[in-house]
Amino acid sequence: MTSGELIWTRPEPGGRRPKFTRAQIAQAALEIADAEGFAAVSMRRIAGELGAGTMTLYYYVRTKDELVALMDDAIMGEVLIPSDELPSHWYDALCAIAIRTWDVLMRHPWSLHSLQNAQAGPNAMRHFEQSLAALAGTTLDAPGKFALLSMVDDYVHGNVLRSAEVQAGGSDTEMADEVMRFAQEQFASGEFPHTQALYDGGDPQGVFGRLLGGRSARDRFCYGLAVLLDGAAARMKLPLPGR
Description:
By secondary structure, this protein is mostly helical. The chain has helices at residues 22-36, 43-50, 54-57, 64-79, 90-107, 111-114, 122-134, 142-169, 173-187, 193-199, 207-212, 217-236. InterPro entries: Homeodomain-like_sf, HTH-type_TetR-like_transc_reg, HTH_TetR, Repressor_TetR_C, Tet_transcr_reg_TetR-rel_C_sf.
């Protein structure tokens, strides 16, 4: 795809009073995907939500790839922190960006699979610029900054995928019962003493609640983020807040 084919290089349809904007189309698509999954998103369905003819929307968005790009950019717009709210210390700034990204992606967990090949848009560039700005006052060189941001992104995205899977699987109690029965049968073989030990001393069905200490998925994410950044600070010789 050449740069001339990117939706970002083509101005929005003009006219004195355009009926729709790309932002409205993207928002309608996000609401459908959030409610019913990405597979439910189509130009026909979006047109129905907006009260428009399907062919009318092709005046604004020519292809499914362009629609995906608009949806991805809308999500990245949610991720952006207002510039006057971004903390000045690199540690606090990266924490704020990572937590906001996690919150947004947990509202749209389907996006990690369905929008992963989207054309990078202006809000994605602003997000990357904001992340680099968070590290501007450090002594890291360009590869070091990129490495740290990549580590944080990997953690955020991986945690969202796992948290969303756990959230989705938690409602299938019948399957959970089957898994528990299978596990207990395997414990009887004596091959899994360390795993079996996790289940001792309480209701086997509530083992994960006991191991997680009652902390929410968001709390566990924040704890892991702090461990990651503390380790990065030690390895990369970066100052911690208050030092």
